[in-house]
Amino acid sequence: MTAVSRRRLLQGGTATAVAAAAAAPPFAGFGGLVHAAPRGTVPDVAWEELARGLDGTLIRPEDDGYREWGHPQNLRYDARRPAGIVVCHTARDVRTAILWARRTGIHPVARSGGHSYGGYSATRELLVDLGQLNEVRLNREAGTVTVGAGARNSGIYTALQPYDRALSAGRCPTVGISGLTLGGGFGFSSRELGLTADALERTTVVTAAGNFLTCDEKQHPDLFWACRGGGGGNFGVNTEFTFRTTPVDRVAVYQLDWKWQDAPAAFAAVQELVLRAPDALSCRMGGGSAGRTRAEIEERREVSAIGQFFGTADDLRDLLAPVLSAARPKRTLIGDRTFWQAKDFLYHSVPSDRYAVTSRYLDRPLPPGGVGTFMDAIDAWPGSSNPDGAGIALFAWGGAIAEVGPRETAFIHRSARFLLAAETTWAGQDDPALVAANLRWLHELSHALDSYGNGQAYQNFIDPALRDWRRAYYGANYPRLAEVKRRYDPQNLFCFDQSITG
User: What is the reported pLDDT for 502?
Assistant: First the structure.
């Protein structure tokens, strides 16, 4: 499948496919939207009709490859197996799948990287997989890069590296560009370069009506606004993105590890540094543990800070000096790297197997009481078989992120100083009682940390247990997002438990 997709993309390219699709008539008999049909009620003849209309592949539960293509990245949601998977080889396949879904009444769900923390890129109905739309094209004269909706962080960086140009992208190499961008998107370059969404100059969206819309500041500017932080899966299916890129050269990186008992001093020193540091410095401060027994959990407790600096290692060492003296690490790494070496050094994948994550934004540092709450929680964590364990991560915010107004894009979290995430993981072999204990532990820790937040949460760390999610993810921008929804998806074809409604 991959070889076929790559060959077709090289022959035609996503732009060619979009042009062809825009002129192609829909299947005969496709009319208005019929609300979702229960799984199993779509007749085989309709599935066969869909398969014949695709440039790509339709995979059903009885087909080879279904297990590979059908399971989600977060196996917590592995019971949600689709009735059919459209493996899109062209942008036209996206339109074909949407129009077929409208006619049959089945619910379509698009998947790019599949990393939805809430499992919203998993479905029991029609899965529209965009992973093969992964072409990356650099326009050297304009300094822009155009990428297919299924491109991953690693693929985009690999294509850009020979030209020493980059955009601010996420830390996980396998995350898809679609979800990352549509929810905002941040990484270790964001304080210097802004969010992934801030570099977006143009995107192509297939609407519920099957129309291909090119969206930018002049064409469909309302939908373009919504695509910069309004969250994935809400307004249509994006098939292509064009970003502004920035020249990159050498940077410096650091990693500091402390003993568990030094966590209060380390958190205080690092946060104080971030508040006065130049935009060129990024930071992820974290702590946690892993294991099944109390002895294992206690032995594996750790606290660390890691980040990047757009400057030299000597200047970085000077910046970090107050931290190194206030909380002496047990291990210190500070060094010069190329931007691409730094990217590899900083890469870290999202948890494996099964996991849950909550988030909150902070307008001020996490105080000693909050650090103590987190440390006590780790000591009380019930454990699991997942080596990724449990813990918290505190990301430095601000810098270039704050230079964009909260209403200029759909991404409202511009004035926060930190993003705090809490996480727990478990494995398939863990018994239900232990899984329930992990989820209860995360709920109690999150509730205890809520008082330190500003009421907002990160939409790309989407949390199905979050009640006031409209305010937390979108704040005062939600009414405008609802207007965009009414305009482009009035019958709510693209919907899930925390989707925007008109």
Answer: 85
**CA triplet 120, 125, 131: central angle to 5 degrees?**
60
Question: DSSP letters of 430-475?
Answer: S-HHHHHHHHHHHHHHHHHHGGGS-S---GGG--TT-TTHHHHHHG
Q: Exposed, middle or buried: residue 85 (CB in 10 Å: 0-12, 13-18, 19+)?
A: buried
Amino acid at 103: R
- Both tokens assigned to 314: 């000597």
HSE (side-chain half, CA atoms, 13 Å) at 399 = 26
CA atoms within 13 A on the CB side of 299: 6
Which amino acid, residue 17? A
CB atoms within 10 A of CB 433: 9
Give whole-number Cα distances, 270 to 10, 274, 316, 436, in Å. Answer: 47, 6, 13, 34
Residue 289's DSSP bridge partners are 390
Strands (E), 63-178: 84-87, 108-111, 126-129, 136-139, 144-148, 165-166
Sign of CA dihedral 387, 388, 391, 394: positive
Structure tokens at 187: 């990484």
Residue 489 has pLDDT above 50, yes or no: yes
Locate all alpha helices (DSSP H) within 39-151, ordered by sequence. Answer: 44-52, 66-70, 91-104
**What pLDDT is attached to residue 16?**
36
CA angle, 145 then 4 then 63, to 5°: 120
Is the distance from CB of 74 to CB of 116 less than 8 angstroms? yes
- Name every residue whose Cβ is closer than 8 Å to that of residue 45 and which is 6 or more positions away in sequence: none
Residue 386, SS3 per DSSP: coil
How far apart are alpha carbons 416 and 401 in whole angstroms?
9
Find out whether 306 and 282 touch, Cβ atoms under 8 Å.
Answer: no
Distance CA 129, CA 97 (A): 10
| Bridge pairing between strands 144-148 and 136-139 | antiparallel
Per-residue pLDDT at 284 exceeds 50: yes
Taking only the tens place, the pLDDT of each residue in 75-111 is 999 999 999 999 999 999 999 999 999 999 999 999 9
Nearest 5°: the CA angle 167, 170, 175 is: 115
